[in-house]
Structure formats: structure tokens, C-alpha cells
Amino acid sequence: MPVGILRVCLVVITAIVNHPLLFPKENGTVPENTEEIIQKMKEREETLRLERLRLEQEIAEQEATQKALEKSAEVVEETKEEKVRWDMWTALSMIIFLLIEVWRQDFQEGNWQDTGGEEDDMAVLGKAFKGLAFPDKAILASFYEKRILGTTGDMARMREMVEGFADDLLEALRSVCNRDADMEVEDCMGVGSMYENWRVRKPFVCDLIVPFAPPEPYCFQSHIWCSGDSFPPDEQGYGTIKVCRAGEDVTGCICDKTKLGEDMLCLLHSQANTTRPSSEMEDLLCFKNTQYLDADQVMKWFQIAVTKAWNRISHKYEFDLSFSLLDSPGALKIKFRSGKSIAFNLTPVVQYENSDVYFISHFPRSSLAADLPSSTHWFLTFAVYERRFIQLVSKTLPASACHVSCLQILSFLHGKQCSLTGPSGLTNYHLKTVMLHLLQARPSQDWAPEKLEARLQDMLKFLEKCLHEKKLYHFFIGNGNVPAELGFPIIFQRAEPLNLFRPFVLRRDIYRKTVDTFHEMLRNTSALINEYTVHIPLAQTNGIRKESL
Questions:
Q1: Structure letter (DSSP) for residue 496
Q2: Residues with Cβ < 8 Å from 396, sequence gap 6 or more?
Q3: Within 10 Å of residue 214's Cβ, how many Cβ atoms?
Q4: Nearest-angstrom CA–CA distance, 324 and 345
Q5: What is the average pLDDT across 269-282?
Q6: Is the separation of the CB atoms in 475 and 437 below 8 Å?
Q7: Alpha-carbon distance 476 to 416, whole Å?
Q8: pLDDT tens-place string over residues 167-212
Q9: Which residues, at least 6 apart from 329, have a Cβ–Cβ distance to it below 8 Å?
């Protein structure tokens, strides 16, 4: 067996060694197509190399595309997340904007001065009010009877005397004026605290306004801040008065602005109907070289006319008349021979169109009031409508309602505090505005006389809230809920609300002084009231408290 295998191996080895291709003989012949085969193999090799390069390039491109797709997918995902976040903030901003717009619309529709509710009033108050011992009903009633009613009983007689004398003085004024050149003076009207029956502090001063109009053929053309044109913030609440011929276009004719030529004539304005020279316009109390009524010129004319009128009728009276204040041109004082005196204000005004809103030449100034933009800007007063509103609402209130009592007590407390610590930015007009807002906001039964204590606290809380926010809106301007019975002009109801506390934003020193004075008044309320209150036995006070409970 091994021998057989060995033989086979020898045969195979011999065959291999003798194979002609492995060891060709020198005389052996090479096939004729060897070079062609080699050339084809090289071409094949080159083809394979190119194919390999192409495949490698495709693989690289695929990998690059895959990476680009993955990166793009990441960017898209991040963009989606950012878009979701952005959409969320956009939606939130839109919701906030809509809420603000709804809130603003509520303000313009009449809820623009938030009066709050009884349940959350204490949350509005600052630290100065918390923990204070506020006078109870019995002490307040005794204080009101002794200090308020005891000193205001003679106001009616004083009003009657002043009105009668003012009518006589104005009649004499008409007689000394030139009817063809001077202003035409109408009858006077009483306004303010003396005629609304809430004046408490002496000296009692009657405020009378005197409407006047220009002589024929002239008329007044008024222009107010809320008539459509833009006015600076410091001119809101003011207006201007232009003196024009009756029927004259306020904007003026084109002949005043264009040279028509020597051979052309304006058919509307002939030489006999030309505008008065500047000197004659000044005779109409206009500002120099303008057609706008000048408040300073009006007051100078009025003072001279009143002086002439008094000289004509002074022999009829056993007292003297003089101008009492230099900074208030309409302030007059009657001096009796006994030494007593009566003060009153007689102020010329211009009627706004056919309403009872008036342009007033000079308004009582306070430390909070800003200076007038110019003497051609007239302040608008709504005093006649304020008096009518109080009279109208009083008819719906219970008998002996406490609204006037609250205002009188608050006015007394503020006046007393200012006499101790100096004047502040608050005025009696601000206090009356607070009462007007609460009169409109609260139902009639809340003003019953036994609720004096609660309503007085409401006024103090509301006033502190307004001071904190530096916002106290004018009662009529921007108030869409004014009763229709008053016939109040719609243009003022549609105007933007006028913030009476806007100067506090600009005058921080006065604001700080006002807030300090108010808080000091709150702390001194009990002491100021007890000082003028008749002693009440403790048992009687407790009995009244039990009845109220």
C-alpha cells in the first residue's frame, strides 16, 4: 500500500516537471495571441480600477448626502421646536393685548375709574390706614352737627346778598360800556361749593361766572383739544377762541393766502368788508397780531369795566368794594364799616357753542396745576353740569343722604391738615371728583344717613387708591355713562379720559408731599374730629353700635 502511493506521487511529479509550459524548451513556440491577451487583461484591469473609483465616489457621495439629510433633519427639528415656542409666546402676547384692549374699552365705556368693592377695599389701602381707630357713627354725627351745620347756616343769606349786588353791578357795567364796540355781558351764574352746599371752611367765598359775547357783527369760534386735531398733553382740557365775523369761514378765504392781482377782486370780501386792522382786533381783546381772544386782555378790560360800574353805583351802598387778590383778577371784597367783609369771585367766561360748558379766563390755581400754555389758551369748566348732576342724583337718594356730609367732612379734615403741615397737591375739586365717581358707582340705598361712616371710609380708600396709581379721571370727560337728562355734549363723552393726577407723574416732589399729607391726615382723623365733638357717654356709643349690628 505505501509502495503504491509512492509510485503515484512519482508519476505526478514527473508529469509536472516535464510540463511544457513550466519548463519550455528553447525551441518551443509561444502562442501567437499572447500579447493580445495581455492587452485585454490590462484593459480589464483599468476598467475594474475605474469602476472601483466610481463606486468609491458614489459611496462617498451617499455618505455625504446621508450626513446632510441627518443635519437637515436636526435643523428642521430645532426649527419646529423654536416655532412652537415662538407660536406659544405670540399667542400669549396676543391674549395679553386683547385683555388690555378690552380693559381699555371698559374704561372708555364708563368703567374707566375703578371704584372697587366693599369686600376688597382693605386690600387697596396702604399701611397708613391699617390699624387706625376710625371714629364711629355717633362721634361722626356729633361732629357733623356741631362743626359743619353750626358754621354753614348763614350761607344762604350770604349767597342771596352777593347775587343781588352782583346783578346790580353788572347792570351798571352794561350802562358804562359802549354797546357798539365793547363786549356784551350776560347775567351771572353761581357755581362751586357755595352753591352745591358743601363749603365748610371760612371765609366763605361765592364763585360767580359771567358769560360775555363780542359786539356785532363779530362772533366767537371755539376750538377744543378733543375736536380732532392733536394737542400736546399739557394742553388737554384747554381750548382757543377765535374772533370772527358772523358767517365767516373759520379757515379763512383763499384771498387771504393768494395774491389775486391788481385787476382781480374777491367776490366774498370787498373793500368794505375787510378784516379789521390789528389795532382794532386788539380792541376786541385779541392777542397782538392774531384773532385769538387773550385771557389777560379780557381780565384787564373786565377790571376796568367793574371799576367804572362801581363808581356809578357806589353812592347807593354803605360799604367799599375792592379787588382783593392781585393773582386772581376776578376776586372782589366787600368791606363794611363795621370791619366785616365778604369775598366773592366774579369771573368772565365764554360759552362753548350752545352748551353749559364754559371757557374760563382765570381758574383758581394750585401747586399741582401747570402753567397755562399761553394767554390764548382757555381752561374749560364743567361746573354747571357738576351742580346739575348732584341735584339730579340727590332726587333718587334717601332722605338726608350722606353724600354731601361725607364731602364736607373730608374737605374739613384735609383743610385742617394742610393748615398744620402746609399745602399739598390735593384740592377740594379732587375731593368732589371722588364723590361724583362714587355717586355714580354705588346704588342709591348705600347713601342712607346711617351709612355715613362706611361711605366716608369708601371715599378715603378710593382717594388713596387714586394717589397710589397717580390716576384720578375727570368725572365728565370720557365718561359715557353721563345721564342723558343733563344734555351733556357728546364730544366730551367720546374724548379720552383726562387724568387730573397727571402732574404727579411730572412733579415727584409735590406727589411725595401730597401722599405724606394724606397719610398724616388719616393718622390724625380721630384727633381732629374728637377736638370738635361733644362728649358722648360710652353707654350711648355702645348702644348705637349694637343697633348698627
A1: P
A2: 444
A3: 22
A4: 10
A5: 47
A6: yes
A7: 29
A8: 999 999 999 987 767 889 999 999 999 999 898 888 889 999 999 9
A9: 299, 300, 302, 303, 323, 361, 362
Question: How many Å apart are CA 177 and CA 306, to the nearest integer?
Answer: 10
Would you state the cell numbers that stand for residue 192, as one nine-digit string? 362751586
Q: What is the DSSP string of 63-132?
A: HHHHHHHHHHHHHHHHHHHHHHHHHHHHHHHHHHHHHHHHHHHHIIIII-S----GGGHHHH--TTTTT-
CA-to-CA dists, residue 446 to 110, 134, 135, 475, angstroms = 20, 19, 19, 20
Q: Which residues contact 357 (CB under 8 A, 6 or more apart)?
A: 351, 380, 381, 382, 384, 385, 489, 492
Domains recognised in the chain with CATH numbers:
121-247+280-534 (3.30.460.90)
Amino acid identity, position 69? L
What DSSP designation does 192 have? S
Report the distance separating Cα 482 and Cα 440, nearest Å.
Answer: 9
Enumerate residues 6+ apart whose C-beta is below 8 A from 501. 466, 467, 470, 471, 472
Q: How many residues does the chain have?
A: 549
Name the strand (E) or helix (H) holding 189: strand 189-191
Name residue, grid cell 338726608.
Answer: 400
Q: Is 342 helix (H, G, I), strand (E, B) or coil?
A: strand
The conformation of residue 181, written as its DSSP 8-state character, comes to T
Contact predicate 439/481, CB 8 Å: no
- pLDDT tens for each residue of 493-523: 999 999 999 989 888 999 999 999 999 999 8
CA distance linking residue 476 with residue 357, whole number of Å: 11
Torsion angles phi and psi, residue 228, rounded to 5: 130, -40
CA triplet 220, 235, 492: central angle to 5 degrees?
A: 65
Sequence-distant (6+) residues with CB within 8 A of 5 are none
**Interval 92-120: pLDDT, tens:** 777 786 677 656 555 444 444 555 443 34
State which amino acid sits at residue 323.
F
Cell numbers for 274? 375787510
58/60 Cα distance (integer angstroms): 5
Q: Helix 295-313 and helix 155-176: axis angle, to 10°?
A: 100
Q: For residues 314 and 307, what is the distance between their CA atoms, to the nearest angstrom?
A: 10
Please count the CA atoms within 13 angstroms of the CA of 433 that sit on its side-chain side: 21
Q: Verify cis geometry, omega within 30 degrees of 0, for the bond prior to 217.
A: yes
Written as nine digits, the cell of 154 is: 348763614
Which runs of E-coded beta strand occur in 308-340? 319-323, 331-336
